[in-house]
Design brief:
By secondary structure, this protein is an alpha+beta fold. It folds into 2 domains: 3-107; 124-192, Immunoglobulin-like, CATH 2.60.40.420. The protein has helices at residues 3-19, 30-62, 80-107; strands at 124-129, 134-138, 147-150, 162-167, 172-176, 179-183, 188-192. Strands 3-2-1-4-7 form a 5-stranded mixed beta sheet, with no helix packed on it. It has a two-stranded antiparallel sheet with strand order 5-6.
Amino acid sequence: MSLRNATRIFAPLVITNYAMAESVIAPAGPAAASLSRLTLFVLIVFSIVTVVMWVLLGAILRRPRGSFEEHAPVDAGGGESWVLIGGFAIPTVILAIIFVMGLQAMARSPVHEGMPGMEMDPPAIRVIGHQWWWEVQYLEGPLELHFSTANEIHIPTGRAVEVELLSRDVIHSFPAGNVRNSVASNTRTWASS
C-alpha cells in the first residue's frame, strides 16, 4: 500500500473522528481535555513505534540471504546495543513520559480542590433511573431553587458538573455527552465532566 493510498483511507477516518460527538479527541470538560491530550500523545507515539517496527521488519525481510561463510557467525558478538537501546532504554523513556503525563492528567481532574478555572462549586444533579424513565433533580442553591424534570437534563457548558446516578429497579446506562456510566439496581454512582 502506497503512502497516497494509505492517506486516502485513513485521513477521512481521522477527520470524521474530530466531528463525532462522543470522540475522545473532542473533549467537553476540563478533565476530559486533559485525558484527551494524553490519549492523543499515546496515539501518536503508538503510531510512530508501529511505523518504525514495520520498517525494521521490512529491512529484515529484504536483507540479503547467504551462508555463514559470507556473513559473520551468530556468536560473533555485537548487537547487544540494539537490545539495550531498542528493547530497554527507549520503551523505559516512553513509558516514563506517559506515566508522568498520566499523573498530571489525574492532578487536573475536577475531584481536586482549587483547580484553575473551577472557582465555583459544581452544580449538584441527581439522576434517578426508573424502569421506563429518568428523574432528574437539580439540587444547586437554596432549597426553594431545587426542582425536578423527567427524561430531560440540562448541563451547563464550560463548568464541571457532578451527577449522582441512582437506580430504583433495573440496570441503567446513563449517557450525557461524553459521559457514559452504568448504574445497577439500588446502587449509587457518581459521574463528573
